[in-house]
Design goal:
alpha/beta, seven-stranded mixed beta sheet, 37% helix, histidinol-phosphate transaminase activity
């Protein structure tokens, strides 16, 4: 078989190590996974109940248009139903955008340390990824603007950025959007939108009316705690949504995902509770990092990127042997690990393990 030449050297996405795998490899009974930015408190009880109630309908195909969920989400966001498309996680929306719009030789601009799926999907379609270095861990919008050419098809802004956790404030984002040519699509990935408490942060949905080239991505995988069900969504002009829909598979979200998301969306009190607990967790971890003399980026999602002052993979391995899974391997930040904000108990266990790991590596506070 002869694959497309542009995918021969394409790296395979490596998710955080599964808990079961670590238990088996290292003979551990207790493992804490803080690698994939999952909600440690899980889904709302109402969402779980809705999923259980739907089990009798497993023999039925899902509603391909997700009509009920679309209507509820449209009401929640204050947009029309034809502004919304659902996917198997927001990852699928990224892939669908690339499939619908990218031709070989098109250029797409992104940060050099951001969500890797932007580049991999551009590579699959034969587009050229222009990677712009982050500035203090944040998107350098002026430098990104300077890279726009007549071949530029799309620009990706991850806000908060994964893995650094930094945000682009609203005034800077609006100035940037105003300067981008109307024919260049801007995809604003707000997967961690519900976690942000900083008042300078923007709500991308509110910018759609004035910027018709904007696409906003969000997900039920993070604060809503439905990562296992894989459901996310995109919000854009009806014209853009219609084009993306043309390349979407007919039944790309499941019945369980739809009913779970519908119930989760209705329980905004639970969302607020998770947001508050996450904010407390950030304060807890940042205080401990300061005590240990470790610098970290400002955290606006449900994760923190911290400089452990040693090769990150060495610290990753030392933590893994203690049953703590984090994330390493960020090429621009070889001494940084990314850790998900866990429960207070999980955070305490992580800090104890990190302190031991750093002592083994000769790092002193």
């Amino acid at each position: 078989m002869n694959p497309k030449p542009n995918i021969v050297d394409l790296p395979v996405y490596k998710p955080g190590k599964p808990i079961e795998e670590v238990k088996k490899e290292l003979g551990l009974s207790d493992v804490i996974k803080l690698a994939s930015n999952e909600n440690p408190y899980g889904a709302a009880p109402s969402a779980k109940a809705a999923i259980v109630a739907e089990l009798d309908n497993l023999y039925l195909y899902p509603d391909g248009s997700a009509a009920e969920l679309t209507a509820a989400l449209a009401g929640h966001l204050g947009v029309a139903s034809d502004n919304i498309i659902f996917g198997c996680g927001s990852d699928e929306i990224i892939a669908l955008i690339a499939r619908a719009f990218f031709l070989p030789g098109d250029e797409t601009i992104m940060a050099d340390q951001t969500f890797s799926v932007y580049k991999s999907n551009a590579d699959i379609e034969g587009a050229v990824s222009i990677e712009v270095p982050l500035k203090n861990g944040t998107h350098d919008l002026d430098a990104m603007l300077a890279k726009i050419t007549d071949r530029t098809k799309a620009i990706w802004i991850c806000n908060p950025n994964n893995p650094t956790g930094t945000i682009v404030p609203e005034d800077a984002l609006i100035t940037f959007l105003d300067a981008v040519p109307a024919g260049v699509m801007v995809i604003l990935d707000e997967a961690y939108f519900e976690y942000v408490t900083d008042l300078s942060y923007s709500d991308g949905i509110k910018l759609l009316d004035t910027h018709p080239n904007l696409v906003v991505l969000r997900t039920f995988s993070k604060i809503y705690g439905l990562a296992a069900l894989r459901i996310g969504y995109g919000v854009a002009s009806p014209q853009i949504i219609s084009l993306i829909n043309k390349v979407r598979e007919p039944f790309n979200t499941t019945r369980l995902a739809q009913v779970g998301a519908l119930a989760a969306l209705a329980d905004q009190q639970y969302v607020q509770q998770c947001r508050s607990l996450n904010s407390a967790g950030i304060v807890q971890l940042q205080a401990e990092f300061q005590r240990l003399g470790l610098e970290s980026f400002p955290a606006h999602g449900n994760f923190i990127m911290v400089d452990v002052r040693k090769p990150a993979f060495e610290v990753f391995d030392a933590l893994l042997r203690q049953g703590i899974i984090v994330r390493a391997g960020h090429h621009r930040y070889p001494t940084y690990i990314r850790v998900t904000v866990g429960s207070a108990e999980q955070n305490t266990a992580f800090i104890a393990a990190l302190e031991k790991a750093l002592e083994e590596q000769g790092v002193r506070a």
